[in-house]
Design a protein that fits this description.
- The protein is an alpha/beta fold.
- Among the domains are: 14-83 and 227-268, ATPase, nucleotide binding domain (Nucleotidyltransferase, domain 5, 2-Layer Sandwich), CATH 3.30.420; 86-225, 3-Layer(aba) Sandwich (Rossmann fold); 506-615, no CATH class.
- The strands form 9 sheets. Strands 13, 14, 15, 20, 23, 24, 29, 32, 35 and 36 form a 10-stranded mixed β-sheet that branches. Strands 3-2-1-4-11-12 form a 6-stranded mixed β-sheet, with helices on both faces.
- Strand 1 and strand 2 form a beta hairpin.
- Helix 12 packs across helix 13 (470-481).
- It is globular, with a radius of gyration of 26 Å.
- The N and C termini lie far apart (59 Å).
Length: 705
């Protein structure tokens, strides 16, 4: 795809945002701030087909041609799903001699020390596909043992006989000196040019052997899949007349080039959910909500993220494919920039069943788009959350997905009775009520755990809900968490794709360069930061257009001998020897905030340095005048089973397109739009704010009817 010239702003003009989910692919068209959207079913066998179909449909509705589009933004969970479902490439690992079993040794600990039947997540590369060669670099980057190039060449027929398509190279201390890893890549390029190669010194140039190796292996595992997908998508768009550049959403909340995404697809893990977190953070800033909880519930998963001081909580570490839900250490570690969130198998397509005790369970497996929930009429026979919502009356069977699908309520009831009726002798609506209560409690528990891990109480936050299923469940989730305010943004059903439109073109580079503050080497730090800035700007500049670029620089510091670091901001200038005192002061202030005390006089060390280069986020226009309150006018009424009481209620139905700022109404009620439906429970009132968001406020106990 084309790269725009520097004097052209690709972030202006007509833009497309596409988010591939497990069930639906969301497409949003932005025409200078005027948005339209649609949902199409995801095509798992060829994900690009749903993207192309959705783009063609929305351009047809808008009367636009491919040449009218200036930029395409894309996010996907394909990399995540490939790891979880073990559908990546046949991957090998080449390590330093003596370090073949790094992936098995891991942390030498158990995530649940009392479980005698514990099962860890299996490595992506089994032992028979791990190989070693003689070489050694010390912690300072000096060569202790030269690379045995003959041993590398001798591995090529072994790799071929094992059917390996992609290989990760992870040598000891390669973050300090990557020459040996690069030389292995050169040798393999000559002898096996069709082999995909991932270097740990490029994927994750940081200390911590196991995490660096695991991240490099994961990148190698998904690289052929993602590179192939992105290449097919790029060719198909070009063949259809698109000349616009394509940018991918990364897990850290920035947009990056197609080429970078193809080389480092592991950075696309959680790219779709990251877009939703960006949307929630921007909305929290416009509303002045310093403590918010984003809630993204789609067809396959639910994602929950803390938003503190208008920024999503970020991390340098992420686990995928956890063997035990909510337990750290039970998954595969990835050391990449990531927006920190908890993700669980609780979406509209999550399958409901009863266990051996006759209790209802929901997920984590999903019916996806093929065959989909029973009510889709595509061959699915297992009941899902969407079937439950339909039976409760909260979903209009005639207007689902913008009227593109008609749901079969009879099939939903039949599937619910077949799966749950024997254990629970209840009519279908009450079976649906049982399913929604279980899934809502599962999500509430995940939110509690996520908040507590960050030292927060979910009850003190505002819930920002988006995704196709989230507005249906947000009120009940808020009741369970004792949250008093819920915000449903404009275009909530395609929230993650909308978040892509608000994300900056950005890239983060991290390098391990060890030094103690007592022997602070400002020249070495400046040299490292300059090289990092050059690498980051090479990715960002092509897509920045005329927008200013900002840089955020940080040092990851700790007391000598500790196991974890704290990120400390660096001055926006060249460092000097006197900055050792500045860094100490900043570290001790942050350490005191985190742990309520410092260790006076203790030596402090810097392990790694981070630099983020990205376009400045433009300020969103704020309507100058607060809207005049007035009662909303209902478009109809519908019988709905209330999720808190289980009672059948006749509730008003409001068309969101008819609700203007200032319109207000009391729950219970439904608000319908093309991509989702909002259920307002009896415990909330609702109003449309100046931005067009639906704001639900809890009713005081004494004010309830």
């Amino acid at each position: 795809m084309a790269t725009p010239p520097r004097n052209v702003d690709p972030l202006a003009g007509n833009r497309l945002a596409v988010d591939i989910g497990g069930t639906f692919t969301d497409v949003v068209l932005d025409q200078a701030g005027r948005r339209s959207s649609l949902k199409v079913l995801t095509t798992p066998g060829a994900p690009e087909q749903a993207v192309l179909d959705g783009i063609a449909a929305i351009l047809g509705e808008a009367g636009l041609a491919p040449g009218d589009i200036g930029l395409i933004l894309h996010g996907t969970t394909l990399a995540t799903n490939a790891i979880i479902e073990r559908k990546g490439a046949v991957t090998g690992l080449i390590a330093t001699e003596g370090f073949r079993d790094t992936l098995d040794i891991a942390y030498e600990s158990r995530f649940d020390q009392y479980d005698i039947f514990i099962e860890k997540t299996k490595p992506l590369v089994p032992r028979e596909r791990r190989f070693t060669v003689p070489e050694r670099v010390d912690v300072e980057g000096a060569v202790a043992l030269p690379l045995d190039e003959a041993a590398v060449a001798a591995l090529v027929p072994v790799l071929r006989s094992a059917g390996i398509d992609s290989v990760a190279i992870a040598f000891m201390h390669s973050y300090a000196n990557p020459d040996h890893e690069r030389r292995v890549r050169d040798i393999l390029a000559d002898l096996a040019p069709d082999l995909a190669v991932s270097l740990s010194s490029e994927v994750c140039p940081e200390v911590r052997e196991y995490e660096r190796t695991s991240t490099a292996v994961a990148n190698a595992y998904v690289q052929p899949l993602m590179a192939g997908y992105l290449a097919r998508l790029g060719r198909a768009l070009t063949e259809r007349g698109f000349a616009a550049p394509v940018y991918l959403m990364t897990s850290g909340g920035g947009l990056t080039t197609l080429e970078t995404a193809a080389a480092f697809p592991i950075r696309l893990v959680e790219s779709g959910p990251a877009g939703g977190a960006i949307l929630a953070a921007g909305l929290a800033a416009r509303l002045g909500e310093r403590k918010a909880l984003s809630f993204d519930m789609g067809g396959t998963t639910a994602k929950i993220c803390l938003i503190e001081d208008f920024r999503p909580v970020t991390a340098r570490f992420f686990e995928v494919d956890r063997a035990a839900r909510f337990l750290k250490g039970s998954g595969l570690p990835l050391r990449i920039p990531v927006i920190e969130m908890v993700e669980i198998g609780a979406g509209g397509g999550s399958i409901a069943r009863t266990n051996a005790l006759g209790m209802v369970t929901v997920g984590p497996d999903s019916a996806g788009s093929e065959p989909g929930p029973a009510c889709y009429g595509r061959g699915g026979v297992l009941p899902t959350v969407t079937d439950a919502d339909l039976l409760l009356g909260r979903v209009n069977p005639e207007g689902f997905a913008g009227g593109r699908m008609t749901l079969d309520i009879t099939a939903a009831g039949r599937a619910m009775r077949a799966a749950l009726g024997e254990a629970l002798d209840l009519p279908p609506p009450m079976l649906g009520y049982a399913v929604t209560e279980i899934v809502d409690e599962t999500m509430a528990n995940a939110a509690r755990v996520h908040a507590v891990e960050r030292g927060e109480d979910a009850a003190g936050h505002t819930l920002i809900a988006f995704g196709g299923a989230a507005p249906l469940h947000a009120a009940r989730l808020a009741e369970k968490l004792a949250i008093h305010r819920v915000v449903i943004p404009v275009d909530a059903g395609v929230g993650s794709a909308v978040g892509f439109l608000e994300a900056p073109v950005a890239y983060e580079v991290v390098r391990s360069r060890y030094m103690r503050l007592g022997r602070f080497d400002a020249a070495a730090a400046n040299q490292a930061l300059a090289a990092m800035a050059e690498e980051a700007l090479a990715v960002v500049l092509p897509g920045a257009g005329r927008r200013p670029i900002e840089q955020l620089r940080r040092a990851f510091m700790r007391y000598v001998g500790q196991g974890h670091e704290i990120a400390i901001g660096l001055p926006d200038r060249a460092l000097t020897p006197a900055d050792a005192a500045v860094l100490r002061q900043g570290f001790e202030a942050a350490y005191a905030r985190e742990f309520a005390r410092i260790i006076p006089g203790a030596e402090i060390e810097v392990l790694s340095w981070s630099l983020v280069a990205g376009t400045a986020t433009p300020e969103m226009p704020v309507p100058p005048v607060a809207p005049t309150p007035h009662p909303a006018i209902a478009a109809g009424r519908r019988a709905v089973t209330d999720t808190a009481s289980g009672a059948l209620l006749e509730v008003p139905v409001y068309a969101r397109a008819d609700l203007v700022p200032g319109a207000s109404f009391a729950g219970p009620a439904l608000v319908v739009e093309d991509a989702t439906t909002t259920y307002v429970s009896p415990n909330f009132t609702a109003a449309i704010d100046r931005f067009g968001n639906i704001v639900l406020d809890a009713v005081a106990k004494g004010d309830q009817a």
